[in-house]
Structure formats: C-alpha cells, structure tokens
Design a protein that fits this description.
globular; alpha+beta; 16 helices; Dna Ligase, domain 1; five-stranded mixed sheet; DNA-binding
Length: about 400
DNA sequence: TCTGGGGTCCTAGGACCC
DNA sequence: TCTGGGGTCCTAGGACCC
C-alpha cells in the first residue's frame, strides 16, 4: 500500500510578502503588479478573495472589484528563498520529495509508518514542522495516490490536513465537480458538460470505450483519474524524477503595443541573451529555437527552427530569433514577444573540432560577461549585436518594465 | 474582465527514410 | 506505374498548471 502527501502552501506569495511587511496581515492584498499595469494577479490574500479576486485575473479587473486592495509587485527571489526553506522541511520527512512548482510538493511516504506513524498523524506533524520551519501555513492531502492527495490538499485549504483512507478514494472524489480533477480545465469541463457529465461520479460511471471514442487517449486517462489512479499523464514515474528542464524561455509583454522595428529587435536580442544565460547556467545546449509573437488583437503565432548544431551562445540564438520573427511578422503592432529554447542537450556532444574551438572562445567571453552581469545587473552588458538596437529601445521602454533585473549601474 | 510569465504534455500533418 | 506501411523528426497550435 502506497502513501503520498501533497503539500500546498497557502496563498504563498502573499504570505511571504506578509513576513516582510506584517502590516499587510488580514488586509486585501494582491501580488502581481500595480492596478494600472498590463498583467494578472499572481496571488490574492484570503481577504482579497472575498471581493471575488483570484489569481490569473487581470489587475485592472481586480482593482475594479476592490479599489482599496493593496497591490504589491512580486519578488521572485523572496519566493525562491522560501521555496528552498519549504524543501528543507519536507526533506526531513522523506528523501523522496518532488517540488511540483515553487509552492507545492509531493512526498512519497510509503513504508515509513514505523518512523512517522499512521499517515494522518504524520501529516499533522509535518504541518506543524512547516509552521515552525518557515512561519508559513500549508495544507496537506494524504492518500494512496498523488492525484487524490492533490485534490485532498485543495479541499483541506486553508491551513488544513485531509487524509483519504485506502478504499475511500471513489467516495471522496465522486461528489466533486469534474473541474477539480487536475488536468481538467475550462475546455475539457465544457466538453464534459456537453455530454451531461458534471461530477466525478458521472465520469467514473461511464464506459472507457465511450470516453476513448469521444476524447481519444485523453479520455482513457480521464477515466483513470475519475477512479483516483495516477497512471497516465503528469503522475507517471517516481516521485523525485525529472530534474533537467525540457525547455527554457523568456517572454515580454510591452507596456504599449509597438511596431517599432528597433524596439522589437532590441527586445528579441535581450530575450535571447537571457535564455542563453540560463542555458549556460544549466550547462545545457539548445537545438531548436522558437519565437512567439502576439498582436494587439491577441492573435498569437509561433515559428521554430532546428539548428544544424546545438548552441548556448547569445548571438546565435538572437540571430535565429530575429530571422524567425521577420519571417512571420506582418508589420502590425506587437503586444508580446517570446524566445524559447527546446530540444535541450547536456554539456557534451560538441563533435566538430573547429566549431568547438570557436564556441570555446565564445564561452570564455560569455563567462566574463555573465560575471559582469552578476555584479552590475542584467541590463549592463550587451553584446555588440544588441548594443546599437538596445540603446534606443531602453529609452522607449521604462526600465521597470523590462524583464530581468534593472541595471544598478551603467558602465 | 481585456487578458503575465514560466513551464509540461499532447496532437496532427508533412517530410523523409527504409 | 499511381501505389504500402512504419518510424522518426520537424513544425504549429493548443490545453493546462502554478
């Protein structure tokens, strides 16, 4: 018999901000940006949720719902720091920990009864340890599968613990809306509703053949989920598997849509530089470069190109990104630009000797550049290709709105 | 309501090879 | 000649998650 926990921090970003500014406690707080900015709510305090504010809602909408709410810019470094503290606490309970995102994790506690006692008691002890170790509240779901534990932690919120006994999975899931199943979003919910399926028990009662015919492979996975099984999709494999990223990307939404080629090129180069930097940090190389562009009407296009050799070099990424962009661009004003690296490879496989020497020289240069950026901020050092274009663009775009760190000092 | 940024996984068609 | 089937890679788009 397996035992899994799902641990989910309560209103994580808001709670961390409260630790830095206790006067926020109990007030309607919105993390994500200022009310006049383009952007969405990253997290809302429980007081703010009472006004109907929730994450992913446009900031302007949140402001209309609750003008007296306190709007706070997000501080990623703070959340990463606290995410690390969460991880440390979790590791004390089981070496089999997998952070599923910055604020939630799965624990495999199978076979730890003699050490931790029965699941419910262990969950309560973990809950208390989290409070002591991080000063933050969390909710914990415990059961025989990751899926059921995840749903359970959601039902336990805020600040609660819920254990679903072995054999009780179907009874627990049955009365819930299908939307509660991880992986069932807006579209799948609508499709299920169209078939008259509203509750998990409706889903569980259906023939697998019907679901497969209607929804394909996804339908089969859905049937398993309705029974509380982990198989198929995100819950495959062991807890703690999958460390290297499969893609690295940066995107930016302009504060005002732009058709200015100079500003666009500068942004593409900048995004490419940030992606390349992170590739080097991870010791990874990309073979497939992709760009994304979104027009004022929100229509979105992507263009990808697989290179003849893997790279982690700013200018190669930037050149590929610019070529892709100009192939796809209609000339209309742009709302968003993105640069993506896929088909990532580990730090080997540089076969061509000449190529190797060339990239080696580059790597030395870039290492120096990376050090400078660490010292003076991301905006300080740009490679030649971005220098000309970059300068004007920084005048156009308020530095506060630029991705990455704001330059602390101009060289 | 006027819609971020970082990801993962899936589908489907066409190219290309055997 | 007017026609197979499988495997893999590439590309574009989309659902979903936090």
């Amino acid at each position: 018999m397996k035992t899994f926990f799902h641990v989910d921090m309560d209103a994580f970003f808001v709670s961390v901000e409260e630790l830095f500014d206790p006067s926020l406690k109990g007030k309607p707080v919105v993390v994500g940006g200022q009310p006049d900015e383009r952007g969405v709510v990253s997290a809302a305090s429980y007081a703010a949720r009472k006004f109907g504010i929730h994450s992913a809602m446009p900031l302007r909408t949140a402001y209309k719902l609750c003008p007296q709410a306190i709007f706070v810019d997000g501080h990623r470094e703070r959340y990463l720091e606290y995410s690390e503290k969460v991880f440390v606490v979790l590791q004390q309970f089981s070496p089999r920990v997998e952070m599923a995102s910055i604020d939630e994790a799965y624990l495999d506690l199978t076979g730890t009864e003699r050490l931790h006692g029965p699941p419910l008691a262990a969950a309560h002890r973990l809950h208390e340890a989290m409070r002591r170790g991080t000063s933050l509240n969390c909710s914990i779901g415990a059961s025989t599968s990751r899926l059921v534990s995840k749903v359970a932690s959601d039902q336990a919120k805020p600040n609660g613990v819920l254990w679903i006994m072995p054999g009780g999975e179907a009874r627990f899931l049955g009365p819930l809306d299908v939307r509660k199943i991880p992986g069932v979003g807006k579209v799948t919910e609508r499709n299920l509703h169209a078939c008259g399926i509203r509750k998990v028990r409706d889903l569980a009662a259906l023939e697998e053949a019907f679901l497969e015919e209607r929804f394909g492979k996804w339908g089969l996975a859905l049937a398993g989920k309705a029974r509380g099984e982990d198989a198929g999709g995100w819950f495959d494999g062991e807890v703690g598997e999958g460390d290297d990223p499969k893609s690295i990307s940066h995107e930016h939404t302009f504060s005002v849509d732009t058709a200015d080629t100079t500003a666009i090129d500068a942004m593409l180069v900048r995004l490419a530089e940030m992606v390349a930097r992170r590739l080097r940090d991870h010791k990874l190389w990309t073979r497939t470069v992709q760009i994304k562009l979104r027009y004022s009407d929100f229509s979105t296009f992507t263009r990808a190109k697989t290179l003849d050799h893997a790279t982690q070099i700013d200018t190669e990424l930037a050149e590929a990104a610019r070529a892709l962009f100009h192939r796809a661009w209609s000339g209309k004003a742009i709302r968003l630009l993105g640069v993506y690296a896929q088909s990532l490879e580990a730090d080997e496989g540089q076969t061509n000797l000449l190529e190797e020497e060339k990239t080696e020289r580059w790597r030395k240069t870039l290492k120096a550049v990376d050090r400078l950026r660490d010292k003076y901020g991301d905006g300080t050092v740009s490679l030649a290709a971005s220098l000309k274009a970059g300068f004007r663009a920084r005048v156009h775009e308020n530095p506060e709105n630029l991705p990455g760190k704001t330059p602390k000092k101009e060289e």
